Amino acid sequence: MSLFPQRFIDDVRLQANIMQVIQEYVPLKRAGKSYKGVCPFHSERTPSFHVDPEKGFFHCFGCQAGGDVFKFIEQYEKVSFQDAVRILARKFGLTIPEQGDDASDDARGDASLREALLKVHEAAAGYFREELAKPLGERARKQLADRRVDSKTIERLGLGYAPGVPTGLKAHLLEAGFSQSLLLQSGLILQRDNGEVVDRFRNRLIVPISRDTGSVVAFGGRAMDDAQVPKYLNSPETPIYSKGRILYGLNLTKSVIRQNRYAVLVEGYFDFAQVFQAQAAPVVATCGTALTQQQAQLLRRFTTKIVLCYDPDAAGKGAAARSCELLVTEGFDVNVAELDQGQDPDTFIQRHGPEQYRERLRRSRPYLEYLLDQTARGLDFRLDQQKRELLNRMLPVVNLLPNEAARDQFGEKVAFKAKITDEVVRSAFRKLAVKKRPGLGASDLPGLGALKKAERELICGLFHNTAQALAALDQLDTVDLEHLGAREIFELARTLHDEQPDVLPSALLQRLSIEDAQLVTRIAASTSRPAPPLECAHALRRLRLEREGAAIQREIDRLQELGAGQHEEEIDLRWQRKTDLRHRIEELT
Ligand SMILES: [Zn+2]
């Protein structure tokens, strides 16, 4: 149920240009009347994601995702319809109305809590920045200077300092009018076992963590002294912050990433800071943990080519290896750049400068080749047993490869390396790869099969021949729609009858469930030329009349079984009705 008045939703729909919205997430290229790009909802290399700006919908021929601009935001940002409306309204500068009394308290509460948490974080970020500039922040400023982080970078990253006092931030925020319970929910202050309520971050260098839109949603705090544990302390998960869904620094580098068509993925805040400051490459950071699927999806909005940059010992192991594997599985092109032993991008750039760093990036190699070399190191391929060893260690990697061509290609490399014949490697690879994760085939999708041809064509007509399709729908009676799979879609379309034909498709999509919208966009995006809407309507009525005719025939059969003589009158009556039906059917043809 919508909490906003329909009039407001309609306004947003008219303002929110679907091309403009989707293009921020997916690079699109013109393809005839529509635009296409790489689908953000499934892994693919060849674009099958289409946007029809004129009709206001998107559709993916690969995974069947589809819908209008609201459905895109709902599915992409994983938010409710309400939030999608809100996001778009804000983006296009519409004033969001006070929500009506029928709004559920929960939904209203969630949204206003998130809103309030964002405000708290903004205020806290300001406090930390000011503290860094004060005399007490001197040691923190010196540490940044020692790390060669200059004042411009400090400002761009919004770096700050949490002084070593127990309630500095708490007092500041309470004074600014935030309630203690909100501060507790923000995770910026915490309650100790003895009941005392104190700042989470004390005597730490503060790094604000932002969404890619720029709003600060969490903080990372680095220890000032060696004795301080942990070395890095992060905000806890809150209604506005989920660690696995954010990439550090993306808010600052997303447009450079898009322009350059690749991103360098580093591990820490200071790796990011150094690469960013030196403008050495378009960079984002994972902050120490392995990349999550959501982060990969976030990256995909901007690029599908990633260079990971690690210490030579780290790349094959732990979080780094898991990130690489995830990216390969998700269909990214992944390269690995090797730095010198014991170095990270932060220390490397400080020592050798950005030009050398870029040179390392240029010399980066595809992850799998890199892995192969790492594994082959120290093996002696004059020995059969060691050849087998390499093959066995490479087998699990094969499952990451998206298709047979890629597996064969990689097989050749392994064969060359281990001096085994291609065939041996390839057959081993293929055997293993038979049971690869199956994609969702079009036939697995519910719905389409249940629709009759005329239903599908009439739906298509609603998009491409709107006025006629509406007129055709008007000719149908409720009873004509009764047994149809698309009944709800048609009934909804009939209620939208007063809309201008050119906005009907998006008005319809907005009101459908995600599943129905997918079904509808899938039909609307299909290229086959539909029959004229009136013909479809006639076909649907004919189906209904034929169904009635068949029911009457069943009654006649039953009466005749009971004894034609006794039931003559009833049988005659039914024959009469059946003849009428036949005439009506003939009139339609
Ligand atoms: Zn898709």
Ligand inventory reads: zinc ion
Low-pLDDT stretches = 435-446
Structural category is alpha+beta
Strand order of the largest sheet: 1-2-3-4-5
Whole-number mean pLDDT: 85
Number of domains: 5
Q: DSSP strand (E) fraction?
A: 5-15%
Query: Count of helical segments?
Result: 26
Largest sheet report: 5 strands, antiparallel
Portion of residues within helices: 40-55%
Report how far the terminal alpha carbons are from each other. Answer: 42 Å
DSSP, total strands: 16
List keywords for this structure.
589 residues, alpha+beta, DNA Primase, Chain A, DNA primase DNAg catalytic core, N-terminal domain, Dna Topoisomerase Vi A Subunit, Chain: A, domain 2, binds zinc ion
Report on the structure:
The protein has 589 residues and is an alpha+beta fold. Helix 5 packs across helix 9, helix 17 crosses helix 18 and helix 19 packs across helix 24 (514-525). The relative contact order is 0.07. It is globular and about 105 Å long. Mean pLDDT is 85; it is low at 435-446. The protein starts with 5 loop residues before the first helix and ends with a helix. Helix content is 53%, strand content 11%. A hairpin with a 5-residue loop joins strand 9 and strand 10 (216-223). It folds into 5 domains: 6-91, Alpha-Beta Complex (DNA Primase, Chain A), CATH 3.90.580.10; 108-239, DNA primase, catalytic core, N-terminal domain (DNA primase DNAg catalytic core, N-terminal domain), CATH 3.90.980.10; 250-353, Dna Topoisomerase Vi A Subunit, Chain: A, domain 2, CATH 3.40.1360; 378-433, no CATH class; 445-589. It has a 5-stranded antiparallel β-sheet. Strands 13-12-14-15-16 form a 5-stranded mixed β-sheet, with helices on both faces. The protein is built from 26 helices and 16 strands. Zinc ion binds next to loops.
